[in-house]
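Box 4.2: Ligand-aware structure prediction
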Amino acid sequence: MTERIITKHAGEKDTHTLRVYQSHGGYEALKKVLQDWSPEDVIAEVKKSNLRGRGGAGFPAGVKWGFVPKETDKPKYLCINGDEGEPGTFKDRWIMLHEPHMMIEGAIITCYAIGIHTAYIYIRGEYDEPIARMEGALAEAYAASLLGKNILGSGFDLDIYVHRGAGAYICGEETALLESLEGKKGWPRLKPPFPAAVGLFGCPTVINNIETLSFIPHIINRGGEWFAGLGTERDGGTRLFSVSGHVKKPGVYELPMGYPLDKIIFEQAGGIVDDRPLKAVIPGGVSAPVLTPEEIKIPASFDSLAKAGSMLGSGAIIVMHDGTCMVQALQRITHFFSHESCGQCTPCREGTRWVDKVLDSIFRGEATLEDLDLLASITSNMIGQTICPLGDADAMQIQAFITKFRDDFERHIRDGRCPLDI
Ligand SMILES: Cc1cc2nc3c(=O)[nH]c(=O)nc-3n(C[C@H](O)[C@H](O)[C@H](O)COP(=O)(O)O)c2cc1C
Ligand code: SF4
């Protein structure tokens, strides 16, 4: 049995309430920090923990915080990313529903460490229940002097607001999220400047994922070294994996960083439905290039998945058995990306739509083998040519599917129909 941190009390009653959270030692880390720790102490402990961002890119949290200028006459902001738009991802939802105070406590400590007095939680618009839970938890925290002016008599002030998204996947990208919070169209910004220097309303800003911040109270309570020791050399702690698709027990699993990917599927999630053969695994949300069954005997960590040519991303593991039409699976993914492209860069706007049309014609049995070369050419002209990684993600996923499952695509084209009769 591996140690669980965020989901330790899963299944217990009313874990979302302040009363139950405090009965589990909640807000003790905050008290400790406000009484005895300097902001620098907090940042140093988080650096020691090797906590890497759980939103997708896996950037070390303590290092990111260290980029924010200490001396500035501008206000600084924390934006908490609860957009959770990456298909297959549903772990931040779990935290908001069951442990909202853990995230709030982590956010308060983070703001104290960086000298922030205003934070926003940007939550996916469809998440009615998590939004209600989050708002309820914030109200409880204000009533208990854990938020607002002079928190617990420490002299530190912080306000946290919930902002509801309006249904665009791209608003999960950190700079599009800032634009959206400012009331504008959610278009990603060119970087540099990075948000740590020029972020929300032109001020220094840290953007962190809901899960990333939920680990902070535990790192304070038990130490950065303890957290680092749970994971691999460069990836500290546990992480929440959202496992979906053709597994017997889909759900959210908290496991140490570096836990074997094949064991997550075959042991934790119970294996493949009806014990059918495994065909493919997407290891980190649909932006993460697909893996074959031979490629999944690896540690599920940021570094090892990057080495395997994919990504740990948001930790969303999508499992497909042998009854999956790989052409249709890819067609759905490309349709999603073409629909969600913000349209700002030509290679992404035109490229995602073009590949979507080509894949549709392959699926309908109306394409030729040259269309596979056309896809290779379009996608190689998309990669590295855009403002944000959405265009790259689509192109790289197409290249991975076609390289690894080329027979499926060729059979579709040659037979003029889906061999699986889908
Ligand atoms: C297209 C796109 C969508 C993204 N969606 C999310 C999201 O829904 N939630 C999230 O936390 N990060 C998302 N990210 C990653 C964020 O840009 C950013 O890296 C993250 O919020 C930083 O927090 P972290 O360092 O704690 O991971 C997305 C990135 C891209 C390119
Ligand atoms: S890559 Fe696509 S989604 Fe990203 S900024 Fe360019 S057009 Fe928008």
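In the box above, the bound molecule is flavin mononucleotide. The longest strand covers residues 238-245.
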